[in-house]
């Protein structure tokens, strides 16, 4: 601590650490930056840490459909992920009348037996949002919009 | 397992919640996890700053034994004069009454009832910000203090002499009652109110009851030990906010407002017993809240699953699980801190660990602050819009429109996800630097020999680096 030599050595060591760390983590950071406008759909069937990833090439007509039975989503909470600016698209089918609420965006639509309710809106707000049923209160999807 | 979740959902939403709307969390937009590259930058900068601080830091004690200078007369009269004191006290009492009133009479939906947002956001988080900026403002607004003083004054006028407290506050008790109170508040907010993945919700009515009970307890304690004595040691909120106010440049001394160097007030803050526990609980509570949305989400759900499999009712299992993980988070934070302290004992074996721990407790206040800012920044930005629009005009949620703002809501687009990231990142870095400065100064004051001071600091630094990187890590895993 006393001599200038020690000080310079410590500073150099610190610089080395920052450089190494930066490059070590950069590799991991890059795949997050790949910009595809196609919505990626993952369905969480069980716990939060078990995600069954389906690498969806997603032509425009294959829209994820969330099935509701008795006020609960079949197969758990659906994970929807898009980049900001892209379109959020999903459909909901239900055997009971309820209302779907996309939080943050405050989009509400009626769902009910015998019809398929389509949701299609631009993802102009980034963040993580819950999609919920108003009457039963159950969460049916989690929408992630990346900046 | 999916059936179990479905069952849980049904039970939670039908049995626990009086109204469907109560199932809503307070906020419609959650933060995106901090991206890896930003986490890497944050961790690296924390390390760099620490090395630089250790090698290039000042060599003489700067913050300890600080000077306090009174501010000018006009300003002093305006801020600490009788009118200001009466006004602030009255405002505090009105707000306390209003919380209880809206809590009992307002709608059950927590997002449309004034009481929930006011207590958990405007009061609990907003006052932390105000305390850091302007000093111990809560003392002026403290409703229990105001009511107690009015009652005591009235009583002494009626009896014809001043009353003295029947009991002397045991100094050994220090801040421990406030620590217990803080754990209780955190339990109400994070365990009773929202258990990990399900918002079981503290209803406005529960909050009103808790407020009334806490008020009664406070009045009894003030009656036993004296009003100011209880405020200075045992009253939870006074102690919690005063901890953050110790970083501020403003300090009221003998009824006069004055200035001191930033951070300097913290150097004398940790003297009473229990101060260290208060800082660690503050850090641990935020750690738990951050972790339950990310790293602990998996473990929490599996513990919950095993408890329900063992035959516990879902709600009991939920709350028991959260209690266990809250306790674990508090224990982990304490363990990390004491690890650093025992390291310092290697450098100076003559001092007891407890003494060293207390000497460095105050250096962790900025880390507690950084955790709060990083974790709750977006919540405050969203909920304060609600507070000053529809919750102001329609506090009971009954459809009234007092000031014409009942129709406005929260603009979630006010800040972007990237802006939130940079605020979180900045909070952790700045908190780390401030913690470093306080620790460095204390080490210089404790060990006159700069060499011993430097060696001891390696341990303190390691502990701080751990906390700062942990903070960044939790953010990078949140809602991931």
Question: What's this, in brief?
Answer:
Chain A has 147 residues and is of the alpha+beta class. Chain A has 1 helix and 11 strands; from the N terminus they run H-E-E-E-E-E-E-E-E-E-E-E.
Question: How would you summarize the topology of this molecule?
Answer:
The complex is a heterodimer of chains A (147) and B (480).
Chain A: H1 4-30, E1 40-43, E2 52-53, E3 65-69, E4 72-73, E5 78-83, E6 87-94, E7 98-102, E8 107-111, E9 116-122, E10 127-133, E11 139-146
Parallel strand pairs in A: 3-6, 5-11
Antiparallel strand pairs in A: 1-2, 1-5, 3-4, 6-9, 7-8, 7-10, 10-11
Chain B: H1 2-16, E1 29-30, H2 36-56, E2 69-70, H3 73-80, H4 82-105, H5 114-123, H6 126-134, H7 137-141, H8 143-159, H9 176-193, H10 204-225, H11 227-233, H12 236-245, E3 250-253, E4 256-259, H13 266-269, H14 275-292, H15 297-309, H16 314-347, H17 353-360, H18 365-387, H19 390-393, H20 417-446, H21 450-477
Antiparallel strand pairs in B: 2-4, 3-4
Helix pairs in contact in B: 2-20, 2-21, 3-4, 4-5, 4-8, 4-10, 5-18, 6-12, 9-12, 9-14, 9-16, 10-11, 14-16, 14-18, 15-16, 16-17, 16-21, 18-20, 18-21, 20-21
